[in-house]
UniProtKB/TrEMBL annotation, chain A:
UniProt keyword annotations, A-Z: Membrane, Transmembrane, Transmembrane helix
Residue ranges constituting the Protein FecR C-terminal domain according to the UniProt record: 255-323
Highest taxon in the source lineage: Bacteria
Residue ranges the record marks as coiled coil: none
Pfam family, one: FecR
PANTHER family the UniProt entry points to: PERIPLASMIC SIGNAL SENSOR AND SIGMA FACTOR ACTIVATOR FECR-RELATED, PROTEIN FECR
Organism: Chitinophaga agrisoli
Identification of the protein by name: DUF4974 domain-containing protein
Keyword Iron: no
Keyword Membrane: yes
GO molecular function terms listed in the Swiss-Prot or TrEMBL record: sigma factor antagonist activity
Transmembrane annotation, as ranges: 92-110
Residues covered by the FecR protein domain: 128-213
Signal peptide annotation: none
UniProtKB/TrEMBL annotation, chain B:
Family: Belongs to the sigma-70 factor family. ECF subfamily.
Domain RNA polymerase sigma factor 70 region 4 type: 119-169
Keyword Transcription belongs to the record: yes
UniProt cross-references to SUPFAM superfamilies, sorted A to Z: Sigma2 domain of RNA polymerase sigma factors, Sigma3 and sigma4 domains of RNA polymerase sigma factors
Classification via Gene3D superfamilies: 1.10.1740.10, Winged helix-like DNA-binding domain superfamily/Winged helix DNA-binding domain
Alphabetically ordered keywords of this record: Sigma factor, Transcription, Transcription regulation
InterPro entries: RNA_pol_sigma-70-like, RNA_pol_sigma-70_dom, RNA_pol_sigma70_bacteroid, RNA_pol_sigma70_r2, RNA_pol_sigma70_r4_t2, RNA_pol_sigma_r2, RNA_pol_sigma_r3/r4-like, WH-like_DNA-bd_sf
Protein name in the entry: RNA polymerase sigma-70 factor
GO-annotated molecular function: DNA binding; sigma factor activity
Domain annotation RNA polymerase sigma-70 region: ranges: 23-87
Length: 324, 188
């Protein structure tokens, strides 16, 4: 720099100004500043620019947690858009089929009715939860890694989904999963396909409103709100009261515990946060919790657990959590 | 702030980015950065969101050996300036119209001059090269020490020193015509 002589460079002046300079450098700059008036003026310019530029600072008043939710919405919408695109392609095929039928049958009403009855679509959720409305007006929420095929009020499910069924008494809605069937008229319920430790494939059905009829082989059970039924795909059904609301997390983003054993909550937290949680004393798993966690961080939830049970001590080592 | 040893710590084993962690760590700083360039809160958020969205779509690849912070700041810098460039024609017209409609000459000379310096400084800062701008911004607005900036961007402290000096030199060069008058104003 022409103006910055005596080995005093702009870098050094900046360090001096920003209080990053060493003692020796400070001394060097002071000597330089006591030189020609030109030097002092040059440095004043730096000071002025530095001071004035603060006026241009912007401070983000946006809450990052809220912003994160907005990004998730955006990603969610993009996932939905992909599913819809897939469906629209199929619709074109059916539209073509419908036109063909119209030519054959010679009546618009007939073709419209038949296309409605046989309307098909496939939904798939990969890394995020997908919500959609089925052609009959029923609404469905697919958990991650779930596929669903719909054809005329019959769906085939692999994974987990929550259904809110549009009532239609003449056409019962059916969910078929691993060979078992859930039959409904109009209600809301959750279906999850499972692989039991015995090796057989089955499903778990939890009813929220209305009632459903679950069929496995020749066995049939009516399931009421608040009840859960498990099947093994081979004609075995077991019904009982639903012990927890944790299954709804993927849809509601709430961990609802009503007298829920700690062990169940821990299993859910492990699945949701993809983290290792070790309960060192197995008896602690049977402690009952009453709490609803909504949008809380894992640390907040753990801290509530720790405060609720004086006998519990929680330690966190990186990605591993110990409950003692 | 921990030393940034490259992006490896921000990547899942399958090479996709830990989106939530990255977002929650850097959103505020990046949003403020975009704000200083585009001067619009909502627009700045949109720019940052769009950038993370592209990361999620995996359209933008980041490599393991570059600093994630450096990557994110660079992306925000370019996206924000691109936005300004596109808005420029429209804006130029609007400013022209405002200038001719408003009775801005009634303002006092002092205020005008200060406002003008701010405006000139803003324009001059937008002309700084990317790394220079980012480092100046982190130093000035995020109040980070040289060592912290170096750690975050995965560069040498010496580079930070050079870039801050360079920023002040460039800004002074662009503003030198305004400065003597201002010193008078400040000193009286």
């Amino acid at each position: 720099m022409k103006e910055a002589t005596n080995n005093v460079t702009d870098e050094l002046l900046a360090k001096y100004l920003l209080e990053e300079a060493t003692m020796a450098e400070v001394e060097q700059v002071r000597v330089w500043l006591s030189g020609p008036a030109e030097n002092q003026r040059y440095f004043n310019h730096f000071t002025l620019i530095w001071e004035q530029s603060r006026e241009l600072a912007a401070h983000s008043t946006v809450d990052e947690a809220q912003a994160w939710l907005r990004l998730q919405d955006r990603i969610f919408a993009a996932t939905e858009a992909r599913v819809i695109r897939m469906r629209q392609r199929r619709r074109i095929v059916y539209a073509a089929a419908a036109v063909l039928l119209a030519a054959v049958a010679g009546g618009w009403w007939l073709t419209r009715d038949s296309s409605q009855a046989t309307k098909q679509l496939a939904l798939r959720a990969d890394d995020s939860v997908v919500k959609d409305t089925l052609p009959d007006g029923s609404r469905v929420t697919l958990n991650k890694h779930t596929t669903l095929e719909y054809k005329g009020r019959k769906v085939r499910l692999d994974g987990e989904a929550f259904f809110e069924i549009a009532p239609d008494e003449r056409h019962p809605f059916e969910v078929i999963a691993n060979g078992d069937t859930v039959q409904v008229l109009g209600t809301s319920f959750n279906v999850c396909t499972v692989k039991w430790s015995t090796g057989s494939d089955g499903m778990v059905v939890i009813v929220e409103t209305g009632s459903v009829r679950v069929r496995s082989g020749s066995k049939i059970e009516e399931v009421q709100p608040g009840e859960v039924v498990s099947s093994d795909g081979k004609g075995y059904l077991q019904k009982g009261p639903n012990p927890d609301q944790l299954y709804a997390y993927y849809r509601t983003h709430q961990f609802i515990c009503n007298n829920t054993p700690l062990g169940m909550l821990v299993r859910k937290l492990k699945a949701v946060y993809g983290i290792k949680i070790i309960v060192e004393n197995r008896e602690l798993e049977h402690l009952k919790i009453n709490a609803t966690f909504e949008d809380d961080s894992l640390d907040q939830i753990l801290s509530v657990i720790e405060k609720t049970f004086p006998q519990i001590h929680i330690e966190r080592h990186g990605q591993q959590i110990y409950i003692k | 702030m921990e030393k940034d040893t490259g992006s490896a710590e921000w990547l899942h084993s399958d090479g996709t980015i830990m989106l939530e962690k990255a977002f929650k760590t850097y959103f505020k700083a990046l949003h403020a950065y975009a704000c200083t360039i585009v001067k619009d809160d909502a627009l700045a958020e949109d720019i940052v969101q769009q950038m993370f969205f592209k990361l999620w779509e995996k359209k933008e690849r980041i490599t393991v050996n570059q600093s994630l912070a450096a990557y994110l700041y660079r992306a925000v810098y370019h996206d924000s300036l691109n936005h300004l460039k596109h808005a420029k024609v429209k804006q130029a017209y609007q400013q022209h119209a405002v200038y001719h409609q408003s009775g801005h000459t009634s303002k006092t000379a002092d205020k005008l001059l200060l406002g003008e310096l701010e405006q000139q400084l803003y324009l001059a800062m937008n002309e700084l090269p990317e790394q220079c701008r980012t480092i100046f911004q982190m130093s000035r607005f995020e109040m980070l020490k040289y060592q912290e900036i170096a750690d975050r961007l995965g560069i040498a402290v010496k580079t930070v020193e050079n870039q801050v000096g360079k920023a002040l030199r460039i800004l002074r060069g662009r503003l030198v015509d305004f400065l003597p008058l201002l010193i008078l104003l400040f000193n009286r």
